[in-house]
Each structure stands twice: as structure tokens, then as C-alpha cells.
Specification:
Mean pLDDT: 91
Organism: Pseudoalteromonas rhizosphaerae
Function: Could be a mediator in iron transactions between iron acquisition and iron-requiring processes, such as synthesis and/or repair of Fe-S clusters in biosynthetic enzymes.
Number of strands: 2
Strand order of the largest sheet: 1-2
Largest sheet: 2 strands, antiparallel
InterPro entries: Fe_traffick_prot_YggX, Fe_traffick_prot_YggX_sf
Structural class: mainly alpha
Low-confidence stretches: none
Strand content: 5-15%
Radius of gyration: 14 Å
Family: Belongs to the Fe(2+)-trafficking protein family.
Number of helices: 3
Keywords: Iron
Length: 90
């Protein structure tokens, strides 16, 4: 049976992550309070941020920026805004 959590992002009971995907206290907080579905949403946004802003994950400033965006998205109900980004037309 899958582990469930009350997801702070989605505000509902949902399937939790299978294991801690991020290190440290923040990783523990994500594991205990964020669902698989919400984390998948973040991963999509994270990919967009990395690509559109040309982030280098070897750069500590870029990693700090990405972590701040992740906390805002998952726990503070902030959406990730990418200046100049327009979704592809269908």
C-alpha cells in the first residue's frame, strides 16, 4: 500500500514520495508534506527554470535561487514566473 501524506501544495491527502529526494531538513520537510503529484509539478517547473534562465547547477548562486523557487512553489503557494516565457501554441 502506498504511503499517503496531507500535501501542503495541493491541500489534500495524496500519495507520498517513495523516498527522500532532497537532502537535509528541507528534504525531510518535502518528504513528509509534499505528494508525488506536487513534486512532479515542481520538477516540470524546475526544468523550465533551468532551461529558460540557463542555470548552471555547479554554481552555488544558481542552486540557491532554484531552492528558493522550490520552497516558494511547494510551500508558499507561489508560482514560478519566467520572464518572457510563453507556452507553445497548440
Amino acid at each position: 500500500m502506498a504511503r499517503t501524506v496531507f500535501c501542503q501544495k495541493l491541500q489534500k491527502e495524496a500519495e507520498g514520495l517513495g523516498f527522500q529526494l532532497y537532502p537535509g531538513e528541507l528534504g525531510e520537510r518535502i518528504f513528509n508534506n509534499i505528494s508525488k503529484e506536487a513534486f512532479a509539478q515542481w520538477q516540470h517547473k524546475q526544468t523550465m527554470l533551468i532551461n529558460e534562465k540557463h542555470l548552471n547547477m555547479m554554481d552555488p548562486e544558481h542552486r540557491t535561487f532554484l531552492e528558493e523557487q522550490m520552497v516558494g512553489f511547494l510551500f508558499e503557494d507561489k508560482d514560478v514566473e519566467i520572464e518572457g516565457y510563453r507556452p507553445p501554441e497548440k
